[in-house]
Design goal:
6 helices, single chain
């Protein structure tokens, strides 16, 4: 029974070919452009730059000033922009959730599974105290951490291994003495 394994590359190729990656990129760019904190921080960095506040800066050409500003501020500005992009990508209430849902949907299409692949998990912080019932909407979810998933897989493998050892011992001709 040969089942096709869907790889991350398969999912990525589908997302690239159907225009999803371009659409996500455009959303990120538009959200960065609308990020007032990022804009004001960049303006503040330029206003406080050594290049512009050095005596004689007014005598430099625009090109010289631009090149010097770029050399001074390119890395810190790009670091802040990068942090903002990662915040958008990882935001589970906005674009990050949209990305996760889209990847899951495409994986399900390719593999023939029905979404959702993973059941909803209520965070431990949201567990009700003894004697109190908390009603949570079925849409609340928390992604499992890698260590949690790894521990579950290790526990399952250990159980399978132990079960397999018990079965092998029971079926072994030496065990029937």
């Amino acid at each position: 029974m040969g089942s096709n394994v869907i790889t991350p590359d398969d999912v990525l190729e589908t997302l690239m070919n159907d225009g999803t990656i371009d659409a996500i990129r455009l959303k990120i760019i538009n959200q960065l452009k609308a990020n007032e904190d990022l804009k004001s921080n960049t303006i503040k960095m330029v206003e406080q730059s050594k290049v512009l506040n050095t005596p004689g800066a007014e005598k430099q050409t625009k090109r010289e000033l631009f090149d010097a500003l770029r050399q001074e501020l390119e890395t810190p500005v790009l670091e802040k922009a990068s942090r903002s992009v990662w915040d958008l990508i990882l935001d589970q209430n906005g674009l990050g959730k949209e990305i996760s849902d889209t990847v899951e949907r495409v994986f399900c299409q390719l593999s023939g599974h029905e979404p959702p692949l993973f059941p909803m998990v209520i965070s431990e912080a949201a567990q009700p105290e003894k004697g109190k019932d908390i009603i949570t909407p079925s849409t609340s979810s928390k992604k499992r951490s890698f260590s949690h998933i790894s521990k579950e897989e290790a526990d399952a493998a250990a159980q399978d291994s132990a079960k397999g050892s018990d079965e092998a011992a029971a079926l072994s001709p030496n065990s029937r003495k």
